[in-house]
Amino acid sequence: MNRVTVIAHPVVQHHLTVLRNHRTGPEEFRRGLAQAAALMVYEATRTLPTRARPVVTPLEKTRGVKLASEVLLVPILRAGLGMLDGILRLIPEARVGFIGLKRSEKTLQASAYHKSLPEELGSFEILLLDPMLATGGSVVAALDLLAARGARRVRLRLVSLVAAPEGIARVHKRYPDLTIFTASIDRRLNRKGYILPGLGDAGDRLFGV
Ligand code: PRP
Ligand code: URA
Fold first, then answer.
1. Which residues lie closer than 8 Å to 128 by C-beta, 6 or more apart?
2. Among 20, 61, 88, 185, which residue has the least CB neighbours within 10 Å?
3. Of 184, 129, 117, nearest to 156 (Cα)?
4. Does 204 participate in catalysis according to the annotation?
5. Would you say the CB of residue 137 lies under 6 angstroms from ligand 1?
6. Percent of the chain clearing pLDDT 90 (strictly above)
7. Which ligand is nearest to the CA of 162?
């Protein structure tokens, strides 16, 4: 099973390059991340199950489909917020939950400060959104919260613009069957836990602080 899909689409790679550029300011960064996220989710939702739904056109009845389950988008605050609007344009009927996590600069441990999710997650197809998968601590903490609410592992997908090999390994150690969609598997982490070459601190670049 291929658990990591690298989205090599030229438009995604174009946006990624703009986002990596240290000269790109918050406005352009927001726009680029929203557009890249939407294109990535187009790929990440390719295998969503559907159900038959007949439809009557102005001329006749024909076959159609609808998504078999509700989609829940879960951005990890703050930086995951930068992916949300672009994706909602693609799936406007999706529901949205939030998980707030902050990584300590010293220990690199992620701690949760906010959670707003449906009580029971078993029926949802869930897309976890975070542009950066570095040590993997934040994503593992988020997945633990989702699992505690009954999220089904086979119905979870992670969408991360840039992923470090260390983060992928950590996430897959705990959640072996999680499908990860990324635009790039970068080289490695530096001593401070930043992805190389990466794009810097995604939250700071999005929000300017
Ligand atoms: C950043 C990023 C990820 C996390 C990745 O968030 O947005 O959530 O770091 O690092 P990890 O894989 O090592 O856990 P940060 O904690 O800086 O919070 P912010 O988005 O509010 O800036
Ligand atoms: N978080 C970020 O925003 N960037 C990194 O490179 C690592 C963690």
1. 74, 76, 139, 142, 143, 146, 156, 157, 158, 159
2. 61
3. 129
4. yes
5. yes
6. 99
7. 2
Gap between the Cα atoms of 172 and 157, Å rounded: 12
* Residue closest by Cα to atom 3 of ligand 1: 132
Q: Which ligand is nearest to the CA of 133?
A: 1
pTM for the model: 0.97
| pLDDT tens by residue, 193-205 | 999 999 999 999 9
The candidate with the shortest Cα–Cα distance to 160, out of 182, 142, 179, is 182
Joined together, the tokens standing for residue 119 give 């009580």
**128 within 8 A of 139, measured Cβ to Cβ:** yes
* 160 vs 121: CA distance, rounded Å: 21
Assess contact for 46 and 39: CB atoms under 8 A: no
Structure tokens at 127: 């897309």
CA dihedral 135, 139, 145, 147 (to 10 degrees): -110
Rounded to the nearest whole angstrom, what is the distance from the C-alpha of residue 67 to the centroid of ligand 1? Answer: 31
Residue nearest to atom 1 of ligand 2 (CA): 201
Q: Which amino acid is at 125?
A: E
